[in-house]
Write a structure and sequence with these properties.
Length: about 425
């Protein structure tokens, strides 16, 4: 045992930021395992169990020995089903089974997409390809794209715009180096959603840029929370999920990503899919299939039996969970609004709140911890009141330090207890 201190890791991995959501989640789990009564609001996963028909389908598939390697891109019945759903429900044109790849979760789908889109500059002085990322945004988009070689340009959104990118803002940010625009609706962490009109305006800007200064531009649309929609739009009507890939002018330069994890309480099954459209979409998926073949080979076939069941036989369970998220959203936001100095938007979809806690920055806790940032706020809340929330810093460089993210994918008793602990913590700050 000598000399191992000299062994280095790759610069790529050394410089990679660890996931802050996963870090808080693991810390909360470790405290809980050590017997501490932790209230965990950090985990972005439903507290429900995977619907019974999906579990039964996987068990039957295992018993039928669906335990071997399958087609690299996912078995044909699954890809045919996804192509049908993308065509009929998402209204995306020109999608066949050859435009779909099934992979190990939406995270892996994004990882593969970024690897296939970005190049690390090889010539000194060569500019990096850019990814435009409206923020606050989920913590892994930025580091995963950077790992692939992208330069990520964060586009700060405002509470006044419901934390959504405007078409004018996008237009001003596009350059000849723009390779990708990253969208996520409904959004983690803001739980807001783009309307059809807003997406149409964004699509028009992208189509124009593609014809003029940014011919390589593509859209990556993470629609993981597509089925968890319960709020209303600006005119008070029930909000509607719209895929930006349904706009004909940009359909063939849009990559749509989704998965069963959040909607069907299947996070641990590690499944997700990507789809393209038309000529480029098919070529893109073929490239990703090569990449998957040289990495994870394929996902497990028996888990796809479960996913097909979820997508075709579990509408009642899906609706039960959607309704539960709706009532939790209203309960939790009502309780949080009673806490002085917390500002928050109404969640429209997904299951997060992202309150602005900046009224409390500069204060101290009874134990003497100074709250200079969301990271300090979250650390002191965990330390002094055993409540785990995710600090906002990694969701936005510009404004993240003013926010915390809490998931309301937990039962009502926990929501009430959490609001009570958070209220006590805030009241203790001087
Ligand atoms: C917007 C978004 N994309 C992707 C993921 C990762 O999804 P998966 O668990 O399917 O990899 C998450 C998880 O929290 C998310 O919120």
């Amino acid at each position: 045992m000598s000399g191992t201190a000299a062994i280095s890791l790759s610069a790529r991995v050394d410089s990679l930021k660890a996931s802050s959501t996963v870090a808080v989640m693991n810390k909360a789990k470790a405290l809980k395992a050590a017997g501490v009564d932790v209230l965990n609001f950090s985990a972005g996963e439903p507290d429900f169990n995977t619907p019974q028909p999906a579990k039964a389908a996987a068990i039957a598939a295992i018993n039928a020995n669906a335990t071997k390697y399958i087609d690299t891109a996912g078995d044909v019945p699954t890809r045919e089903l996804l192509a049908k759903l993308l065509t009929e429900r998402n209204k995306i044109p020109n999608v066949t089974k050859d435009h779909v790849l099934v992979t190990a979760g939406v995270k892996m789908a994004l990882y593969l997409a970024y690897q296939a889109l970005f190049d690390v500059p090889t010539v000194p002085g060569q500019p990096q390809q850019e990814m435009l990322l409206p923020v606050p945004a989920w913590v892994s988009f930025n580091p995963m794209a950077v790992l692939a070689g992208a330069k990520v340009i964060e586009l700060p959104t405002t509470p006044e715009a419901d934390f959504k990118l405007t078409a004018a803002q996008l237009k001003a940010a596009i350059t000849p180096r723009t390779r990708a625009v990253m969208l996520n609706s409904p959004s983690n962490p803001c739980s807001t959603m783009y309307s059809r009109q807003e997406l149409a305006a964004i699509a028009a800007v992208i189509a124009e840029a593609a014809r003029t200064i940014a011919p390589q531009i593509v859209v990556i649309s993470d629609e993981l929370y597509q089925n968890i929609v319960f709020g209303t739009d600006a005119s008070g009507r029930p909000a509607e999920h719209v895929s930006i890939g349904s706009f004909p002018d940009i359909a063939e330069r849009t990559i749509t990503i989704n998965g069963p994890g959040k909607s069907f309480a299947m996070t641990g099954w590690r499944l997700g899919w990507l789809s393209g459209s038309g000529e480029f979409g098919k070529r893109f998926i073929a490239g990703l299939t090569k990449l998957q073949g040289q990495s994870i080979t394929c996902v497990s076939g028996f888990s796809l039996a479960a996913m097909r069941s979820a997508l075709t036989e579990c509408d009642a369970e899906l609706e039960m969970m959607r309704k539960a998220f709706a009532s939790r959203a209203s309960l939790f936001t009502g309780l949080l609004r009673q806490i002085p100095g917390l500002k928050l938007a109404n969640p429209v979809g997904a299951f997060y709140v992202f309150p602005d806690i900046s009224a409390h920055l500069g204060k101290s806790t009874p134990k003497g911890a100074v709250i200079a940032s969301a990271a300090d706020f979250a650390a002191a809340l965990l330390d002094e009141h055993h409540m785990a929330v995710v600090p906002g810093e990694d969701f936005s460089q510009a404004t993240g330090h003013k926010h915390i993210r809490m998931s309301f994918a937990c039962d009502e008793a926990q929501l009430r207890a959490g609001a009570e602990r958070l209220g006590r913590f805030v009241a203790s700050l001087k």
